Structures are given as structure tokens and as C-alpha cells.
């Protein structure tokens, strides 16, 4: 797994690490159920950042239930981490859909047009 950070993005480095690890877990690149995340010191050295920054990212991912820190062994993707992230994503998407539908109704946009807009956006992401 290759992480890329940007010092000019305006987003904290630990957040960039968390986002990329979440994406790797969701895509299956970091498989759940015992797959080890990159070691703290090795990742910090590769990214040329503080070990504390990587530690913060891993600890926050552990607080979210995505990874588990095992003293002396490393950080591992939890078996339910992928499902937890998918459930959270579904909830977040449903909230966005609710807001979108409210705005579409207020603007008198028909459901078929709204579905066409969603399909176009979805295809643009591929």
C-alpha cells in the first residue's frame, strides 16, 4: 500500500493518512481479518513525517473500530472494519440523498431528471 501526502492541501497529514487507509480497507487493498497496516516507524520514515502523526492516525482509526493496535505486534484491520465503514457510508449517503431530494422538490425537478443527474455523476466517477 502506497500512501501519498500533501503538505499544501490544507488537510492535516494524519487525516490524509486516515482517509487513504479507509479507502484501502474499503477497496480490499488492506483486507480485513488480520491484515497488518504499514508499521508506524516505517510509514513515518517513508512519508518523512513524525511517528506521532502516524500514531494519531492509527489511534483515531482504532477509536472508529476500523483497525486494532496490538502492543508489540502492530496495527491490524479489524474483521468488521469494512462492514462498519460501509454502514457509515450508507448512512452518510442516505442523508445526502434526503437533502438532495428536498432541494430537487423545491426546484421542481422531476424524479427521472434527478435520477439521470445521479447516473451521470456516478458514471463520471468511474
Q: Strand-residue fraction?
A: 5-15%
Shape: elongated
Poorly predicted runs are none
Q: Whole-number radius of gyration?
A: 18 Å
Brief description of this entry?
The protein has 126 residues and is mainly alpha-helical. It is built from 5 helices and 2 strands; from the N terminus they run αααββαα. Helix 1 (13-27) packs across helix 3 and helix 2 (40-47) packs across helix 3.
Written description of the protein model:
By secondary structure, the protein is mainly alpha-helical. The protein is built from five helices and two strands. The chain has helices spanning 13-27, 40-47, 51-63, 81-106, 111-124, and strands spanning 67-70, 74-77. The mean pLDDT is 89.
Task: List descriptors.
elongated, 126 residues, two-stranded antiparallel ribbon, 5 helices, 2 strands, mainly alpha
SSE layout:
Elements: H1 13-27, H2 40-47, H3 51-63, E1 67-70, E2 74-77, H4 81-106, H5 111-124
Antiparallel strand pairs: 1-2
Amino acid at each position: 500500500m502506497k500512501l501519498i501526502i500533501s503538505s499544501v492541501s490544507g488537510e492535516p497529514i494524519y487525516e490524509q493518512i486516515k482517509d487513504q487507509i479507509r479507502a484501502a480497507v474499503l477497496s480490499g487493498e488492506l483486507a480485513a481479518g488480520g491484515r497488518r497496516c504499514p508499521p508506524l516507524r516505517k510509514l513515518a520514515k517513508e512519508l518523512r513525517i513524525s511517528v506521532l502523526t502516524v500514531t494519531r492516525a492509527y489511534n483515531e482509526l482504532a477509536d472508529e473500530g476500523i483497525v486494532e493496535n496490538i502492543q508489540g505486534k502492530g496495527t491490524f484491520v479489524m474483521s468488521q472494519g469494512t462492514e462498519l465503514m460501509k454502514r457509515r457510508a450508507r448512512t452518510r449517503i442516505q442523508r445526502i440523498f434526503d437533502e438532495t431530494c428536498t432541494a430537487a422538490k423545491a426546484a421542481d425537478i422531476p424524479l427521472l431528471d434527478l435520477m439521470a443527474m445521479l447516473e451521470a455523476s456516478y458514471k463520471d466517477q468511474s
